[in-house]
Amino acid sequence: MNLLEIRNLKMDFGSGGEALRAVDGVSLTIGAGETVCLVGESGCGKTVTALSIARLVPTPPANYVSGEILLNGHDVLRMSSVDLRNIRGGVVSYVFQEPGASLNPVFRIGNQIKESLKLHRPEKATNAEVIRLLKLVGIPAPESRIKNYPFEMSGGMQQRVMIAMALASEPKLLVADEPTTALDVTIQAQILELLHDLKHRLDMAILLITHNLGIVGDMADRVAVMYAGQVVELAPAQELLRRPLHPYTKALMNAVPKLTGGANRLSAIPGNVPRIGNFPPGCRFAPRCPIAKPECSEKIPELVEVEAGRRVRCPFWK
Amino acid sequence: METAEPISIAEVKITLSPLQLFWQRLKRRKIAMAGGVILIFLYLVALLAGFVAPYSYDRLDTDYSFHPPIWPRFQGTHLVVPRYEQGGGVFTYHIVENNSKPLHFFVHGDKYKLFGLIPAAIHLFGTNDKNYPVYLFGADQFGRDVFSRLLYGSQISLSIGIIGIVLSFTFGMIIGGISGYFSGWTDTVIMRLCELIMSIPALYLIISLRATFPPGMSSPQVYAMIVVILSFIGWASMARVIRGMTLSLREQQFVLAARALGQTHLKVIVRHILPNTFSYVIVAATLSVPYYILGEVVLSFLGVGIQEPSASWGNMLTAAQNTEYLRNYPWLLAPGAAIFITVLAFNFLGDGLRDAADTKS
Questions:
Q1: Domains (ranges, CATH) in chain A?
Q2: DSSP state, B139?
Q3: Would you say B336 and B252 are in contact if contact means Cβ atoms under 8 Å apart?
Q4: Is B259 on the interface with A (CB under 8 A)?
Q5: Is A16 exposed, middle or buried (0-12, 13-18, 19+ CB in 10 A)?
Q6: Does A90 touch chain B if contact means CB atoms closer than 8 Å?
Q7: Beta carbons within 8 Å of A95's beta carbon, 6+ residues apart
Q8: Residue of A nearest to B254 (CA)
Q9: Residue A24: what pLDDT?
């Protein structure tokens, strides 16, 4: 059994005639101990998909139309609020983009980590355990750091604290929503290394949301590329990077500067991401696609398995 | 030979908690500190009213109706209390020369209960002689010591402000937090209710609420009633402000992070959102205490508050309604001066707290 199995998830913002479909038929699985990357441009539905795993998108305005999110075999969308609170933190923990904003500014970090412990492992809600967690995430002198307020720490340290908070409840799945976007490059590398290391030590699965393909290469076992609310390509990470199949993925790869390519102008994908609620008919990438054919605008292509473990939402991938 | 330069030892940077920073900024504001010191003094005296006051609040002696203030004076190195005699008209008192009693400290006098619990009879000062009273602020029409009544009255008037604020702010914060956090129809219902309460002129609301309570209640009951009435009126404006702050705070990522840890809605509100409003709340509370003190004054002044013989600043002022009294016995206005000082001190302190809480300055 997979740890997480999202099946054909459809989610609207709003309801009735004004409903905007933010997630349109996303299917995704994560096995125990696996690292999956979710890649895509801003506004393509990465974050709402990830938040849906613990049903953290407020309803309303969100509205789950159909689909299932099976976490350990239980459908999150049909859970009671008590069960939901148990899986939040207990099974799946989150680390967000802005570490500074994710910590409550008026409490000492030690107490914030302890809050996580109190909720899920009350017998371990001690300073010693907090210090152990801070050590685990590589914070120097944790004994004195527990008395710090979030604003007394650097961004990288804050993100480590966030990770410690997320790990405090010993989750099976860590969802990291662009955990390094707000940090500078050297710190980014440190945090990613930390996540990688922790994953092996604690045997936990990671869902990493990013728009940085470099991170994908470093971290991921498998990658899901999202575009306009749909998964357009799903593949093992190394294979995807070596040989992208979907024209969108190819375009994304082309937009990455290469070390060997000289100082040419970076290639960009022409046009803009279609606005939610204003998607083109047929294939959503068709208006920007270099290999688009007239029939592309007629019918939405299916996500088909074209090779073992590789799925592509484009009939012309060859 | 050159003298060695002193080696500068890098100062160990001790990070201050927000509270310590706040305290440092507050300390620089002298007027606010003065207000704070005055308030601490007033509350201390109120706490020890039975001990500081030379008489009980209800001890009357009609021989001394409208007696002017009597202040101890120095005779050599001793403090003595002069004796007055009535003469030359009603309620006119003259000092009798060479007739005085020494003032003693820690004298035995009227029984009282310290902190409302410990029976005691020791007073800070007195003459031990019924014929030589010490009326620092004069006496009222029943010959009761205005100073003593002022102190006993401060117990009621000062505590009503604090208890009223605690009650209405707690209520207002929780209701406002719920309103802003859940928004939607919860918010609409709660906010319309607040507006309803705020749209009725406070005085009419106070009086009509008073009418819902039976007449002839005991003093503690009246006291509780006043607190309830004032809090009932006060929570609405607090709830509105907290609701507004919650609306912006709930979008903060730490709220999402707390929910992602599996925290309940109520705990997210109480433990994560409301603490972020504290710097505002503390300032607002300090600036609002005077309204509660004045509210009690208004109720008692109208005769529907604390009842005689119990003393409160409000019902003491009712004695000063009469202009003739005011002209002839101005010391009856002492509670007015006490209110003035208290309200001013609260405002000074509140202004200072606001400036100190404003980290942008």
A1: 4-91+171-257+269-312 (3.40.50.300)
A2: B
A3: no
A4: yes
A5: exposed
A6: yes
A7: A102, A159, A162, A163, A166, A174, A175, A176, A177, A179
A8: A102
A9: 85
d(Cα A7, Cα A108) in Å, to the nearest integer? 40
Q: Do B258 and A85 touch (CB under 8 A)?
A: no
Are the Cβ atoms of A85 and B264 closer than 8 angstroms? yes
- In degrees and rounded to multiples of 5, residue A166 shows phi and psi of -65, -35
Residues near A144 by beta carbon (within 8 Å), at least 6 away in sequence: none
pLDDT tens, residue by residue, A207-236:
989 888 888 888 888 899 988 888 888 888
Cα distances (angstroms) measured from residue A227 to each of A52, A68, A315, B98: 17, 20, 16, 103
Asked if A173 reaches chain B (Cβ–Cβ under 8 Å), the answer is no
Nearest to B263 among A87, A96, A119 (CB): A119
Q: Name the CATH architecture for the domain at B148-357.
A: Orthogonal Bundle (1.10)
**CA distance to partner chain B, nearest, from residue A216 (Å):** 24
What pLDDT digit, counting tens, does each position of A237-290 carry?
888 888 888 888 888 888 777 777 666 777 778 887 787 777 888 888 888 888
Which three-class secondary structure string do you get for chain A? CCCEEEEEEEEEECCHHHCEEEEEEEEEEECCCCEEEEECCCCCCHHHHHHHCCCCCCCCCEEEEEEEEEECCEEHHHCCHHHHHHHHHHCEEEECCCHHHHCCCCCCHHHHHHHHHHHHCHHHCCHHHHHHHHHHCCCCCHHHHCCCCHHHCCHHHHHHHHHHHHHHCCCCEEEEECCCCCCCHHHHHHHHHHHHHHHHHHCCEEEEEECCHHHHHHHCCEEEEEECCEEEEEEEHHHHHHCCCCHHHHHHHHCCCCCCCCCCCCCCCCCCCCCCCCCCCCCCCHHHCCCCCHHHHCCCCCCEEEECCEEECCCCCC
Task: Give the residue among B270, B264, B210 at the shortest CA–CA distance from B246.
Answer: B270
Is the pTM value of this prediction over 0.90? no
B99: enclosing H helix or E strand: strand B93-102
φ, ψ for residue B237 (rounded to 5)? -70, -35
Distance separating alpha carbons of residues B189 and B179, to the nearest angstrom:
9
B263: closest chain A residue by CA: A85
Task: Sort out which chain A residues have CB atoms less than 8 A from B256's CB and list them.
Answer: 56, 94, 96, 102
CA–centroid distance for A158 within its chain: 19
Give the domain ranges of chain B. Answer: 51-146, 148-357
Asked if A93 contacts A174 with a C-beta cutoff of 8 angstroms, the reply is yes
Q: How far apart are alpha carbons B333 and B330 in whole angstroms?
A: 6
What contacts A308, CB < 8 A, 6 or more positions away?
Answer: none
Contact B257 A89 (CB under 8 A): no
Q: Is the reported ipTM for this assembly greater than 0.90?
A: no
**Chain A partners of B273 at a C-beta cutoff of 8 Å?**
none
CA distances from B247 to A44, A106, B178, B205 (A): 26, 18, 10, 29
Shortest CA gap B254–chain A (Å): 4
Cβ B241 vs Cβ B168: under 8 Å = no
